[in-house]
Amino acid sequence: MIDAILYVPDFTALVGYLDQNHPDMLERDEDGNMTNPPVVTGFARTPATVTSDGNSLLVYARLRDEEAEQWRGMPHMEVLSEQPFTGPGTGQAVYDAIFADATKDAKYKGVYDYTPYEADDGEGGIVTVTPPKMFGLLAGA
Fold it and tell me: pTM here?
């Protein structure tokens, strides 16, 4: 098993590609039509973290070896980081590889920005909010 962060810069393009080339990877209704909104199926994952426009996303996935191979070469998406699943600590290693690479970290932050920011505390003051760096993990990671 492989734990990975999958990055999709353009979900619409990925869905179009899957619909034409791998229709079985998209959830279908009883008539065989793609569900709306589209749902990619076939592997264990966290709920997607999505940009405000809904078109770029990140997902933490646990893939069997053959699934990992398929996703590594998939157009319209990128495996930002992957590690063999070895139990506790795997998730931290997956994320650490992203945070150590400025290009990957910039893509990650383009969807899930963990930069601290200031916000009104509702009582006339300002507080610094520090989002967690990791958006999600699967069980056992």
Answer: 0.87
